[in-house]
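dumping this here so i dont lose it
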């Protein structure tokens, strides 16, 4: 038997379909005996895994691992399984081992890691464990040899979603994942593509998946969504693609096919691509139920955007603030503030830029984060590599300092002065209080009124220092933080 484990990443009330392990389950379906254990639903995942291990001859435990809380859960559960059932081989896959392969392999409880897309690599690893092929023939695999040395095989070219079977939804209690959200009462999630063709210097996606994006055909996307509607009552969906609108012709066809489904939905897009879309396509997107689009605006400084290799301009961001307002779509603009080249200038210019966005489109949701670099293959970003020494093990990444870094709570960036960091944090608090996110469907009306009242004068007069009254109010109101759920 093969076990697929999705470590806990959020509270049960916020859990969504574990798309990563469902993708792996799809290629196992009908050819291998397997079980899925989701730590977001299981209160005691170690006990659930042990019960399966003791009842079946388990050959491999596959663990899907994102940085942050999920990595900590993966570490704790894997370590316990290795201690209690040492004969079970453990493989980590996903974003964390793909960008931190040596750190993952340094853990004694990790035997293999899968870098990038994992479906084919998993099948070939199972074949190798049965003695049918050598480990060094498996693309995308890293492992420890007989001497404990790390070995990394060649990269595996990505295949598009249409190359693989549908997710076997029947293997999970789907109704427990369709949670209420701003978009509907029963919100599903879906990946309609994999990868990203862009090369933003602070991002680790291209390090994990290369610079390519493979899109699912519009017909298959709509068929899967219709299945979720008909079988499980989904009324809304969040698309987890890095770039949902990569091509206008594809976007137009997909939206034309989605319109009859009457779903409300959220996705991610790029301002440079969508600023070139025709009004007819924008109207089709809105007509298909698109309620909100996340844009990585990143900076209010064109020089900083060029340093990041972002490939967009501030003018394109302003264009999308105008166009989304025209078509009744809420834009969600994310900024990574404090560029290492000149963090003080970047901060000043970006805060002014955010105020411009709010004048153009007051409904814009604003996400403010510290500039947080990710290790890349080769040079990451200027001389940042020389300024940050990243942890060399999962245990190192699990410490408070590096959890704060991963979650962009406090990067402890050596180039960011404490006064600049404080300005960024205070500004974020003032803006979030002046315009409380519409995505928190549990917040009572009075809480929004209180936050708006307390913050209005500060935003108007641009007084951001010592916002003690807002800190006090937010300490007990505890509005949903979109940036925490966007990571």
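and the seq i came up w/
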């Amino acid at each position: 038997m093969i076990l697929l484990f999705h470590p806990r990443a959020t509270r049960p009330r916020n859990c969504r379909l574990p798309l990563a392990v469902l993708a792996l389950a799809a290629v196992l379906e009908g050819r291998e005996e397997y079980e899925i254990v989701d730590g977001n639903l299981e209160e005691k995942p170690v006990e659930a895994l042990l019960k399966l291990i003791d009842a079946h001859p388990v050959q491999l435990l596959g663990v899907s691992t994102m940085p942050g809380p999920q990595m900590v859960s993966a570490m704790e559960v894997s370590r316990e399984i290795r201690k209690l059932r040492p004969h079970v081989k453990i493989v980590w896959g996903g974003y964390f081992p793909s960008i931190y392969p040596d750190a993952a392999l340094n853990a004694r409880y990790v035997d293999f890691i899968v870098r990038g897309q994992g479906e084919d690599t998993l099948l070939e690893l199972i074949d190798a464990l049965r003695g049918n092929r050598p480990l060094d023939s498996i693309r995308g695999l890293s492992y420890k040899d007989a001497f404990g040395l790390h070995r990394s095989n060649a990269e595996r070219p990505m295949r598009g979603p249409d190359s693989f079977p549908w997710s076997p939804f029947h293997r999970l209690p789907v109704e427990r994942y369709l949670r209420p959200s701003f978009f509907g009462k029963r919100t599903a999630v879906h990946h309609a593509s994999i990868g990203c063709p862009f090369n933003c210097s602070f991002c680790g996606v291209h390090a994990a998946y290369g610079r390519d994006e493979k899109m699912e055909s519009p017909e298959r996307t709509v068929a899967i969504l219709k299945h979720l509607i008909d079988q499980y009552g989904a009324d809304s969906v969040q698309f987890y693609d890095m770039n949902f609108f990569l091509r206008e012709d594809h976007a137009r066809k997909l939206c034309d096919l989605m319109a009859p489904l009457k779903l409300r939905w959220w996705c991610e897009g790029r301002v440079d691509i969508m600023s070139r879309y025709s009004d007819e396509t924008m109207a089709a997107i809105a007509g298909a139920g698109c309620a909100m689009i996340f844009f990585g605006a990143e900076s209010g400084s064109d020089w900083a955007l060029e340093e990041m290799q972002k490939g967009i301009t501030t003018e394109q961001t302003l264009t999308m603030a105008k166009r989304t307002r025209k078509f009744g779509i809420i834009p969600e603009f994310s900024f990574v503030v404090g560029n290492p080249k000149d963090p003080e200038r970047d901060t000043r210019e970006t805060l002014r830029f955010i105020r411009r966005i709010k004048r153009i489109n007051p409904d814009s949701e604003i996400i403010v984060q510290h500039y947080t670099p990710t290790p890349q293959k080769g040079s990451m970003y200027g001389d940042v590599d020389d300024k940050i020494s990243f942890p060399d093990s999962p245990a190192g990444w699990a410490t408070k300092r590096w959890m704060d870094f991963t979650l962009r709570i406090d990067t402890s960036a050596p180039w960011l002065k404490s006064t600049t960091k404080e300005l960024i944090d205070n500004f974020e608090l003032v803006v979030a209080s002046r315009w409380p996110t519409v995505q928190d469907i549990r917040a009572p009306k009075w809480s929004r009124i209180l936050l708006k009242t307390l913050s209005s004068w500060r935003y108007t007069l641009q007084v951001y220092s010592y916002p003690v009254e807002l800190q006090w109010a937010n300490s007990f109101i505890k509005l949903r933080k979109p940036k925490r759920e966007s990571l």
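Residues 23 and 167 are 6 Å apart (CA to CA).
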